[in-house]
């Protein structure tokens, strides 16, 4: 009577292949998750930088160009702001009060809109009238 003294420990080829398939699926899912997270982080950073740049521009008191668009050049991080000033007609009920709409549009270096910010202000008066 012959006896088999083979030690059958270890993995079969099929078990190794199944482990590789499971591992590769997990790595693909992790890569996609990290990739979308980095994309969202970049978009949030671009929006934050655009908001800071728009806030800086709107805080200046020297925005006095006419109604046509004015390109303010390149801001930080490749952001390109465009500033427009448009008069707002309040009607006769408000008398001599002149209101302007300030619009700052920020475009990223890739050409996508990074944000549009609008505020209103009482128009600066060049000379004060004296009706006494």
Overview in brief:
This protein is α+β, with helices and mostly antiparallel strands and 132 residues long. The chain is built from one helix and four strands; from the N terminus they run αββββ. The model is unreliable at 127-132 (pLDDT under 50).
Seen as an oligomer or otherwise, the chain set is: single chain
Helical residue percent?
A: 25-40%
Number of strands: 4
What is the SS-derived class?
A: alpha+beta
What's the main sheet like?
Answer: 4 strands, antiparallel
Please give the radius of gyration in angstroms.
32 Å
Shape: rod-shaped
Q: Strand fraction band?
A: 15-25%
The CA-CA distance between the termini, in Å, is 131 Å
* Overall mean confidence score, pLDDT: 81
How many separate helices? 1
- Compressed to H and E, one letter per element, the order equals HEEEE
Spans of at least 5 consecutive residues whose pLDDT stays below 50 are: 127-132
**Spatial sequence of strands, sheet with the most strands:** 1-2-3-4
């Amino acid at each position: 009577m012959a006896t088999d003294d083979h030690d059958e420990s270890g993995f079969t080829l099929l078990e190794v292949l199944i482990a590789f398939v499971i591992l590769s699926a997990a790595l693909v899912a992790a890569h996609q998750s990290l990739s979308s997270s980095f994309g969202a982080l970049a978009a949030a950073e671009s929006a934050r930088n655009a908001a800071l740049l728009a806030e800086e521009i709107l805080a200046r008191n020297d925005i006095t160009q006419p109604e046509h668009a004015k390109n303010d050049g390149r801001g930080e991080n490749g952001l390109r702001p465009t500033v427009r000033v448009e008069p707002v007609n309040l009607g006769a009920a408000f008398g001599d009060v002149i209101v302007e709409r300030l619009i700052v549009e920020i475009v990223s270096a890739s050409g996508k809109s990074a944000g549009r910010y609008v505020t209103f202000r009482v128009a600066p008066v060049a000379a004060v009238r004296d009706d006494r």
